Amino acid sequence: MEGLSRRYGEVVALDGLDLTVHAGELVALLGPSGCGKTTTLRLLAGLEDADAGQITVGGNDVTRLPASKRDMGMVFQAYSLFPHMTARQNVAFGLRLRRIGSAQRDRKALEMLELVGLASQADRYPHQLSGGQQQRVALARALAIEPQVLLLDEPLSALDAKVRAQLRDQIRRIQLDVGITTLFVTHDQEEALAISDRVGVMQDGRIEQLAPPVEVYSRPATSFVAEFVGLTNRLAGTVSGSTVTVRGRDLPLVDISTPPGPAIALVRPEAVTLASDSSGDSGPLTGTVIASTFLGATSRVTVDLGDTTIMAQLSTAEAVELPAGSRVSLTIRPDPVLVSAGAAPASEAEA
Amino acid sequence: MAATTASDTGARPVRAGRRPRLPAWLGTTPFLVYIGIFLLLPTGIVVVNAFRSPSGALNLSSLTTPFESPDRSYFTGSLELCLISSVFGAVLGAILAYAIASGDPDGTVRRLYIAVSGVLAQFGGVTLAFAFVVLIGPVGLLIHASWFYTFPWGIAVIYTYFQVPLMVLVFLPAIDGLKAQWREASDSLGASSWQYWRYVGAPLLAPAFFGAALLLFANALSAFATIVAWENQIAYIVPQQIYLAINSEVGLSNVNQADVLALGMIVMVAIIMTGYAFLQRRAARWLR
Amino acid sequence: MAAVTSVGEAPLAVPAKRGRGMQAGRRRRLNAFRYVVFTFFALFFLLPLLAMLRFSFEGSTLGTWSASAWSQIVSYQGPPPLLSAVEISLELGVLTSVVTLALLVPTMIWIRLRVQWISRAFEFLCLLPLTIPAIVLVVGLAPVYNKIRHVELSALMLFWAYVVLALPYAYRALAAGLNAMDVKTLSEAARSLGASWFTVIFRVIAPNMWQAILNALLLSAALALGEFTIAYTLLYNNLQVELYSIDRNTPNASVIFSTSLAALIFTFLLLLIISYAGRRRRRGMR
User: What pLDDT tens digit does each residue of chain B (288 aa) get?
Assistant: First the structure.
């Protein structure tokens, strides 16, 4: 997709967006509400018209084609199964439109239902199936027509947490099995990071970064990405030269052309280590533990530094040693950091 | 705080010495008495008298008289008129409802048409018939329709006038219930507009449509004022004949015939409403 | 497997006119259809009303204009005088709506509070009149009314039957109002403060559903104003019967139309007032 723009009256939903998805790849579009990710998907599907730009699939320009001619399979967020048809009939629907004989249709529908593990429910109606099962049927239906591209519009958002995790992995497994080019839209970063080959983080109609999950997480390209993906501490500091000085320590900058002056350094909690401090000093890197959030193998510890708070990610064993009220001293690992502009007064660490 | 909660069903706890226990349902007595006298009793009278001969003995011929003339002609007349007006009302009303539903959900057009439908569905009867007489009657303002006083087509036009708004009111929620995702899913699977309607839209709307049509049928069946104002010399339909049977000027009033005809109507309406309830449930399940 | 790729380097610089795509085309066709439909139905619904309007201004010879039909509403002598029929119907409207409410409001609240298990049967009974046509009801009412006529001859006695006819509509309006509030909690709070059941019903619950009550009032009154079947068959004289007999005696007398339009406008205005009153109160409430 290239140069895609879409406006709704005053609102610019997409602003000259370029996106290339490679064959067999799963790209996740991640971003907050209103960032344009769903619009992108719907433009690709043909459910909306672009105001400008071009869309190509497999070398063919499909920009002018209506949705029904675009050979794409789509899974919606909810309620997309036809309620008056059984699971089997739903899955076979696309095949019926293509005038495939009923025996063959039936076979293919069952095959697809087996792929998603629901062959036993083939003759159930949607209202007799759970949310997760309905989405699996929807997936089977989309794949039954053997489309060139698979589009998923927040397919897991309407489901319970537990079902979400299971289904997420299943979708990825199937996608890899079938080898189909896929575009997956979500606002849940865990989903996006867990199953995609590349993640496109979007804001205000543009893609801020398009890269494999590890890279998006550990080398965010912009401060928006750094703050949207994973947790970030925002610490006030001063930029000079190629480092930013935060609370008395110099940290290298990702972007050495950052203009000098006050700035907010974005520091990941994993980069912060704590040690028990019995010295009684109160330097800029000492503080008191306020709270500890148990996350399983690791824990997130919040420390009050007097003028701000900071989050550190420690192994639970270590965190247990530092209960609330303990005095601690901090070290910040000198990874390159991003800064966001401005000298906003030090705020609490943001997720 | 020791509160007497409002959730007990049945008796209130006794307050020491004050009042004897009374079952709470007695509070509905005034209502029950009223309904008993003015709804249940009359209905019961009709049903019982329908099976009584003038001398008071049990007479089961009422089970067959509706199917013989002359009674039969009134029932067929009613059925004809109701069928025509419901079919036209349902089809036209469905088209209008679709036009309303496919527009802006908050727009003025939608609100206007719904409000108008609410008012016009009640606007039947005498004045409506007169309005049509001056509009398309033999000396009408718009056209001189020579067929205006023929049964059933002349009167069916008037019936359609109040059937359409009723259809809109009843059927619009069903169209609203067609989810956008179904259309989009159907599109992305490759269906054309026509295919969507044939395989998805129409089957889903069918129960609601036919249910609403049944409701229209029952509505037309009960109508009386409109046809009386249109033409009261000849009785074409059952309600007209019931009136004549009660108020006949030919000697004694033939009340028994009125009861038989009335019973026939009750049975018809009961069948229709059962069908309606069944279709409604189906429609509600899909189009919630 | 296909790849979704971008073509070339430079983005296509075609600025799209609004409405280039397929969705827009479909939208346009739909809008054309809608305009046609709305125009057709607007005409269909308006024409009889316009005809009535035109005729209400008809003079004594066809084709002339005169406003006398409107003043005749009050002055038409009949027999019987039109005005008395108007009065009777208005009184019936008031009587019907008041009695319907007096019957339904306390009963419905009481059921909701103390006797929930009856509510299914109650709803069935209230909606039953919808399935019993008025003409059928009147067959069974005739004997009842023969008894009533021994006591009281006035057409006002029709209200007994009208209340039954109004039940389904009033019930639905009141049920909507009751559903919008938490009756149980309010009444428990009131009771815990020492209120009697009477107070709970009339001073706590009922005031909180006044829009629904007004609605039910209006529906019942409108029904009474428009009722013909029962009055006619039982040989009473109300507004609709009177209009009908005027037409039988003097076909197309324009006073029929002026009166009907007046009744329609009257009902419509009442509707408006109620809906505006409802809206204002809602804004005023914190």
Answer: 333 444 444 444 444 555 667 787 788 889 999 999 999 998 988 888 888 766 667 777 767 777 776 778 888 889 999 999 999 999 999 999 999 888 877 777 777 777 777 677 666 688 888 888 888 877 777 777 777 888 888 889 889 988 998 898 889 888 988 888 899 999 999 888 899 999 999 999 999 999 999 999 998 998 888 888 888 778 888 888 888 888 775 544 556 788 888 888 998 998 998 998 888 888 888 876
* Rounded Cα distance, A97 and C67, in Å: 65
Chain C within 8 Å of B267 (Cβ-Cβ)?
Answer: no
pLDDT at A174: 92
CA-based nearest residue in chain C for residue A3: C11
Residue C67 lies in a domain: no
Same domain, C100 and C218: yes
Tokens coding B275: 């069908």
Residue C274 pLDDT level (bands cut at 50, 70, 90): low
Interface test with B, best of A65, A84, A183 (most B CBs within 10 A): A84
Q: Is A16 within 8 Å of chain C by CB? A: yes
Asked if residue C62 belongs to a domain, the reply is: no
Distance CA A43, CA C49 (A): 48
Q: What domain count does chain B have?
A: 1
A141 touching B, CB under 8 A? yes
- Contact check, Cβ <8 Å, C6/A18: yes
Q: Once rounded to an integer, what is the mean pLDDT over residues A63-83?
A: 87
Interface residue B191 vs chain A (CB under 8 A): yes
**Interchain CB contacts (distance < 8 Å): A and B:** 72
d(CA A44, nearest CA chain C) in Å: 10
Three-state helix/strand/coil letters over A186-244: ECCHHHHHHHCCEEEEEECCEEEEEECHHHHHHCCCCHHHHHHCCCEEEEEEEEECCEE
| pLDDT 10s digits, B65-122 | 777 767 788 888 899 999 999 999 999 999 999 998 888 777 777 777 777 776 776 6
Instruction: Classify residue C70: in a domain, yes or no.
Output: no
Among partner residues C6, C15, C23, which is closest to A1 by beta-carbon distance? C6
Report yes or no: B180 at the C interface, CB cutoff 8 Å.
no
In-domain check, residue C82: yes
Span B6-22, pLDDT tens digits: 444 444 444 455 566 77
Residues 6+ apart with CB under 8 A from B156: B81, B84, B85, B88
The domain of C246 spans 76-285
Contact B128 C44 (CB under 8 A): no
Give the domain range for residue B159: 65-284
CA distance C265 to C254: 17
Residue B14 covered by a domain = no
Q: Note whether B262 contacts C139, CB cutoff 8 Å.
A: yes
Is residue B30 a part of any domain in this protein?
Answer: no
Give the closest of C7, C16, C23 to A48, CB-based.
Answer: C23
Do C95 and C218 sit in the same domain of this protein? yes
Task: List the one residue out of A146, A80, A69 whose CA is nearest residue B200.
Answer: A80
C48 to chain B, any CB pair closer than 8 A? The answer is yes
CA-to-CA distance for C135 and C140, rounded, in angstroms? 9
Interface touch C24/A49, C-beta < 8 Å: yes
Total domain count, chain C: 2
Does residue B221 fall inside a structural domain? Answer: yes
User: Is 70 exceeded by the pLDDT of residue C36?
Assistant: yes
Distance, in Å, from the CA atom of C246 to the CA atom of C213, rounded to the nearest integer, reads 35
- Which amino acid does the sequence have at A224? F
Q: Contacts of residue A68 in chain B, CB cutoff 8 Å?
A: 187-192
Minimal CA separation from C95 to chain B, in Å: 15
Please indicate, yes or no, whether residues C104 and C159 belong to a single structural domain of this protein: yes
Which residues 52-91 of B are in CB contact (within 8 Å) with C?
A: none
Give the whole-angstrom CA distance, residue A109 versus residue A99. Answer: 14
Looking at the fold, whether C43 and C183 belong to one and the same domain comes out as no
